[in-house]
């Protein structure tokens, strides 16, 4: 009974605290800029405001545009039930769940892209083409990194991989988790439209990727997309933390708060990165993603040799 309660608590924590990651990033960026910044709970206020607004649909859109935000939110919530937190097992844990989670993330991206294309706007089509191009390079890095950790831990489940991360694994072969983490950080920044790949605060049409695809969404639909994006950031941060820290060595009443703190530490890291560097030119982003693929391949090689 206790284990089931812990399995339920893990996604609930993710769904409750995910928007706060964006608040932490904004506060870190404000600190580096010498500003006071937005309230920490500003993302929650924005979601609440959007949920109480009406929805406006363009006459050029079809049912695809209307259903896309709901499918995106459903896919990312299902992913939250697969990714464990704090060394315990997830509620939807099974062999091969890491592949299922990756395809759910791909499903979310697919419907955001076709939702943008359904508007018939060349502006949103431009963002969709950039999203597809960069995701085509980020996905191989993600799959290879997961394969490296699966080989290292002899498990094809995210719960199994995270529970097999121990201090002994770090002493016997630290190259695989380190290289995997480096590759996953680049994938995290790319998949969540963060600097140096994209800037979620920009409105320059020549540089926008994710934001341009959701310009026609409004009201609750836009709230679903914003909340889904926050939850996606939480999931990638939780995967990164699970691959690095031996949480299963601690009691669950300690490991879960420690994992939550580590996820927020990742958001602080993102805020520092966005404060200290500029966005890359679009033609340079593929080079960054090829670096991520190379790091993932190296981690797989070290895992195979171990």
Give the topology:
Blueprint: H1 2-32, H2 42-51, H3 63-80, H4 97-118, H5 122-153, H6 158-163, H7 167-172, H8 175-191, H9 210-213, H10 219-244, H11 252-276, H12 285-305
Helix pairs in contact: 1-10, 1-11, 2-10, 3-4, 3-10, 4-5, 5-8, 5-12, 8-10, 8-12, 10-11
Commentary on this structure:
It is a single chain. By secondary structure, this protein is an all-alpha fold. The protein has twelve helices and no strands. The chain is 71% helix and 0% strand. The protein is globular and about 60 Å long. The termini are far apart. Helix 1 packs across helix 10, helix 2 packs antiparallel against helix 10 and helix 3 packs antiparallel against helix 4.
Broad shape: globular
As a percent range, the share of strand residues is: under 5%
Count all strands and give the number.
Answer: 0
Query: Helix and strand string, N-terminal first?
Result: HHHHHHHHHHHH
What Rg is obtained from the alpha carbons, in whole angstroms? 19 Å
């Amino acid at each position: 009974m206790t284990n089931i309660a812990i399995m339920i608590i893990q996604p609930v924590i993710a769904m409750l605290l995910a928007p706060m990651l964006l608040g932490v990033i904004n506060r870190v960026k404000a600190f580096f800029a010498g500003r006071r910044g937005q309230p920490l709970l500003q993302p929650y206020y924005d979601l609440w405001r959007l949920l109480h607004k009406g929805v406006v649909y363009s006459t050029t859109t079809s049912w695809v545009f209307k259903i896309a935000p709901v499918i995106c939110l459903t896919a990312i919530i299902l992913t939250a039930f697969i990714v464990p937190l704090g060394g315990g097992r997830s509620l939807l844990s099974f062999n091969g769940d890491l592949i299922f989670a990756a395809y759910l993330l791909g499903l979310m991206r697919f419907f955001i892209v076709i939702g943008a294309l359904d508007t018939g706007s060349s502006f949103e089509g431009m963002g969709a083409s950039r999203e597809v191009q960069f995701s085509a390079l980020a996905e191989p890095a993600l799959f290879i990194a997961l394969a490296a950790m699966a080989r290292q831990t002899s498990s094809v489940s995210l719960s199994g991989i995270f529970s097999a991360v121990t201090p002994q694994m770090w002493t016997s072969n630290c190259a695989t988790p380190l290289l995997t983490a480096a590759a996953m950080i680049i994938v995290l920044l790319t998949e969540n439209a963060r600097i140096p790949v994209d800037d979620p605060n920009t409105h320059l049409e020549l540089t926008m990727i994710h934001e341009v695809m959701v310009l026609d969404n409004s009201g609750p639909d836009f709230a679903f997309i914003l909340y889904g994006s926050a939850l996606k950031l939480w999931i990638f941060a939780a995967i990164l933390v699970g691959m690095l820290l031996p949480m299963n060595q601690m009691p669950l009443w300690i490991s879960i708060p420690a994992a939550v703190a580590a996820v927020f530490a990742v958001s602080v890291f993102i805020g520092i990165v966005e404060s200290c560097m500029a966005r890359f030119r679009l033609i340079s982003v593929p080079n960054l993603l090829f670096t991520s693929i190379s790091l993932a391949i190296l981690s797989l090689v070290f895992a195979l040799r171990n």
